[in-house]
Amino acid sequence: MATIIASQAVISGAFSITQQAMQLGYAPRMEVQHTSSHEIGQVYLPGINRMLFLGVVALVLGFGSSTSLAAAYGIAVTGTMAITTVLAFVVARRMWHWSLPASSALFGAFLLVDVGFFGANVIKIVDGGWFPLAFGLGVFVLMSTWKRGRALLHGRIDADSIPLPDFVKGAFECTTVPGTAVFLTANPEAVPHALLHSMKHYKSLHERVVLLTAVTLDVPHVAPAQRVAVEALDAQFHKVKVSSDSWTIRTFPKRSSGAPSRDSGSI
User: Fold this and answer.
1) Is 70 exposed, middle or buried (0-12, 13-18, 19+ CB in 10 A)?
2) DSSP symbol at 257
3) Residue 266 — pLDDT band, cuts 50, 70, 90?
4) DSSP 203
5) Virtual CA dihedral for 114, 76, 95, 93, nearest 10 degrees?
6) How large a percentage of the chain has pLDDT more than 90?
7) Are 244 and 227 in contact, with CB atoms under 8 Å apart?
């Protein structure tokens, strides 16, 4: 029973942590399925579930028995306890605004016990305790690299971006073609790069250009009247902001192979 409870806690925890890592920019986007219409934290990630399955199979085949896994388990658990105590100290200081002496006294006592447990398991590193340390280091390198790469990419994009008001003022000089074009953008104040590439290749703009920004709010439900906001910059350019709750985001079915119509828009 304890094994079943612990395994379910690890699985659900992996889903939640991965979702939070994606929101913070430390992991690439993955499919997230929300299993509750009332609780935002009840999520299921099929990709992470498959990775956990393959990881468990590899561990069982590699270590061979639960006895061999005991060393790795001890390092993982005691290390997690120590890290959790340090993070709780940070939360108490920055979010709860506890005083330094009170925070240090309380969490220092917990940390002293955690470090004692971890130190007792250090001798088991060579017997398998190296695995959680190596795995954690690998995940840290991947997440920090992804975060750094995103920061560099966004910095380059922002440096090459054109302010939207300036672009709209000079757009009247471009050739206009019938139809509506929709361009997704995360920054509604700058011209999307897809729009610039479209002008570069086609030497024209559609008679209606919609700049669409999608925002996922951290609330259970968004009122229908607050889900879509439209701002007309002029007769040709419009900004549309779509606000959605996490429950509304779904995995859309695959498109049919038919060609889009002229007025269906381009994303």
Assistant:
1) middle
2) S
3) very low
4) S
5) 30
6) 48
7) yes
Token look-up 């995103």 returns 150
Residues with Cβ within 8 Å of residue 155, at least 6 apart in sequence? none
- Per-residue pLDDT tens over the stretch 95-146: 999 999 999 999 999 999 999 999 999 999 998 899 999 999 999 999 999 9
Return the pLDDT at 6.
83
Determine the Cα–Cα distance for residues 125 and 208; give it in Å rounded to an integer. 64
For residue 134, the surrounding DSSP H or E stretch is: helix 130-160
What CA–CA distance (Å, rounded) separates 112 from 118?
10
**Entry pTM:** 0.71
Tokens 């579930």 belong to residue: 49
Count of residues in the chain? 267
Strands (E), the chain: 33-34, 43-44, 175-184, 204-217, 228-232, 237-245
Amino acid identity, position 154: H
Which of 6, 129, 137, 123 has its CA nearest to residue 72?
129
